[in-house]
Each structure stands twice: as C-alpha cells, then as structure tokens.
Amino acid sequence: MAGVEQRSGRRTAAHGFYKGHSVHAAPGVHEYAVELVRAALPHGGRVLEVGAGCGALALRLRDAGLDVVPTDLDPPHDWIHRLDLDDPQWTDETQGPFDMVVCVETLEHVENPRQVLRSIRSLLRPGDKLLVSTPNVTHPHSRLKMFLRGAPFIFGPRHYHEPGHITILPDWMLTEHVRLAGFDDIQVTRGGDTFYTGLTRAAYRVEMALLALLGLRRRAQHGEGICTFVTAVAV
C-alpha cells in the first residue's frame, strides 16, 4: 500500500518474537487480534492480512487454524506477497475471495486510510468480515500526552518519519471511514499494553492511578487498551 512507509524498514520497534519473527506491535495486540478473528470465523476461513510486516501475526493466525495470505508493500520474506492497494496488481493468491481481511496497526502509516478501506472492501463479498486496529488516541495516557506536548502517545515529530505514524485516527473517525467504505455492524473494542519497563513502568502506573482518580478510567476488553480495534461486516 502506498503510504505504509516500507513497513519492512520503517515499523514500530519490535516488542518480542513469535517463532523467530519480530512482533512490531504493542504487547498483546497480536494475541487479541487472533481472539477477534477466531470469534468472527469460528469455523475457520481464508484471511488476507494487509500490512503483515515480518509475518508474526500471520503465523499466529495460521497456528489458530486460519488459511492466511499475508501481504505487505515491501515484503521481507518470499512467503509474504507484495500488495499496493493504491495500485493493486492482483495475483491468484491476493485477488480473493476472502472470508476476512485483517489490517492490524497499519492505517496510522497510510496517507489515505479511507481509500485503503475501500480497496479492502472490493476484495470482500457481502457478509465477509473486516478487522482493523490503530493506536488508541483516546486512552488516558494518550490524552495526557496530547495535553502536555500536543501529540498523542506514539505520535508526533519523533514518530512521524520513524516508524512513520502519519495519520491519527480517533475512534469516531476510524468507524466513519469504515462505514463509508461499505461496512456495517461496526464494533469497537480496545486491547494491547504499553511497552514500558522498569522505572518508566512504575511511573506509568502512578500516572494511571492519578488519572483514574480524576475520572479518566481505562476501558478495555484486553490488557490496557492502548490500541483501538474495529470489526465490521461488508454490505
């Protein structure tokens, strides 16, 4: 996809590994994504992953019994297919049909997320499923960062070029993009944890306790809810 900023070269710092493949997402994000895909496709199905990066999530999904076709703008492995949704060159593997498209922690890297969602919708039949996620800029920690420095958590000048977080998508905007791209039955949940450790982790916990006293509570279905997940059905 044009605008994903060469995810094999510009991606969020790795936070662990899965079968030797770097996990370039916040802790817990891939695990929660697998839960949501399995809930949407309890009997299995064919899944296209957009923005697969190093392939860690694709391997998790395959281990969960899904038939996964991973794609990326600049694939780091020969088993990941190249796909640019702004100028798609379809192959037998990537043209579908698919039961679900998964696009985890990718839309914040693209210049035109609604166009990407329209391209994804073109691969799906009515009733097929979508899962997307992006950093949760409404999380209390992110809101405090916005108040103090004018940019949410993992956005701003330091993150614009590396890892290429160029598009901020609050919940209302992401769900509206999804709806206008041709989806319905839109559900919003939150999952994933911060990657802080040591003293920074201790300071973060104090911060969260103080924010909770002010009425800014975390509401998450999985972990700390540092990322927003949207599931939807193609119409």
TrEMBL record:
Coiled coil: none
Gene3D superfamilies found in the cross-reference section: Vaccinia Virus protein VP39
Classification via InterPro entries: SAM-dependent_MTases_sf
Keywords on record: Methyltransferase, Transferase
SUPFAM superfamilies according to UniProt: S-adenosyl-L-methionine-dependent methyltransferases (SSF53335)
A Gene Ontology molecular function term of the record: methyltransferase activity
Biological process terms in GO annotation: methylation
PANTHER family in the cross-refs: TRANS-ACONITATE 2-METHYLTRANSFERASE-RELATED (PTHR43861)
Name under which the protein is recorded: Methyltransferase domain-containing protein
Organism of provenance: Geodermatophilus obscurus
